[in-house]
Write a structure and sequence with these properties.
Elements: E1 6-10, H1 22-33, E2 39-48, E3 53-55, H2 71-75, H3 84-96, E4 102-104, H4 111-120, E5 128-133, H5 138-149, E6 157-163, E7 166-167, H6 183-197, H7 201-205, H8 207-210, H9 214-217, H10 225-233, E8 241-244, E9 247-248, E10 252-253, E11 256-259
Parallel strand pairs: 1-6, 2-5, 2-6, 3-4
Antiparallel strand pairs: 1-11, 7-10, 8-11, 9-10
């Protein structure tokens, strides 16, 4: 079984599934450029729980967890099969790491999962399970969670953290789709890229205190926490790859990293 990487993907607005642009093109190429995984495990910013949870649905529904978008988005479906056995294995690995996790048999695929997967694997023929984030528990918890799931990569499981490199929806309406990022966004994004590239794990986990304009770029943390899970699932000592960078609406960072 080919070892799979761990990825962090910025999924942007749900309209990424419809609107042409560099990130959409990147995701379409990304799936074709990877060895085909046996299954996919997505840590999504759009599933928040108090304690760790993993979806065990055999046929997860497509969840349209947004409002006010074009009708075409609500007609979209991503009918990938679930991965209940993988999900139970993930629950067991988390338990061994001291992270008791719940199985969620009714959880579908939210747009943090199905929007990027629709672009990466449009045939929807690879089994998918989701992992929730625990926003109140912070970066170190998610780094540990990712580390607990790392062995799954050796079994052909692609681990994806799906969130956003920067994510301030309060500023969203002030910019056009193709607006360049203001300085407070690009400065934070530069710090994030440099810290990951240098392998400064302690600084990354303490980003809230150390990164410039951290709270402005992430008024709430749920969209950055999948990055820590993907980083934790990567192979220690192997340099990460910054495989995409871009912005939508000026304030939504669309970066992606690969952790092998």
């Amino acid at each position: 079984m080919t070892r799979q990487p761990a990825l962090f993907i910025s999924h942007g607005a749900p309209t990424l599934a419809l609107e042409p642009g560099p990130t959409r093109d990147f995701l379409a190429r990304l799936g074709a450029g990877l060895d085909r995984p046996r299954a996919i495990l997505v840590v999504s910013a759009h599933w928040e729980t108090a304690a760790p949870a993993v979806s065990t649905a055999p046929q997860p529904e497509t969840v349209h967890d947004f409002y006010g978008f074009p009708e075409a988005l609500y007609r979209m479906r991503y009918p990938a099969p679930g991965a209940p056995q993988l999900a139970q294995q993930a629950v067991q690995l988390l338990a061994v790491a001291g992270l008791a996790a719940d199985a969620a048999p009714d959880r579908g695929l939210d747009h943090g999962a199905w929007v990027p997967l629709m672009l990466m694997y449009p045939a929807a023929d690879i089994p998918v399970a989701q992992v929730a984030v625990q926003t109140r528990l912070g970066p170190a918890h998610h780094f540990k969670l990712g580390g607990a799931l790392r062995p799954l990569r050796d079994e052909g499981v692609l681990i994806i953290g799906s969130g956003s490199a920067t994510h301030n929806l309060r500023e969203f309406g002030k910019h056009r789709y193709d607006s360049p990022p203001p300085d407070w966004v690009s400065t934070f994004d530069d710090w994030l890229a440099e810290t990951i590239a240098a392998g400064r794990t302690a600084d990354l986990l303490d980003y809230r205190r150390l990164a410039p304009q951290a709270a402005r770029n992430h008024p709430t943390e749920e969209h950055l926490l999948p990055l820590f899970a993907a980083y934790g699932a990567g192979t220690p000592g192997v340099p990460p790859q910054h495989i995409h960078r871009g912005y939508t609406y000026g304030v939504i960072g669309m970066d992606a990293w690969r952790f092998d």
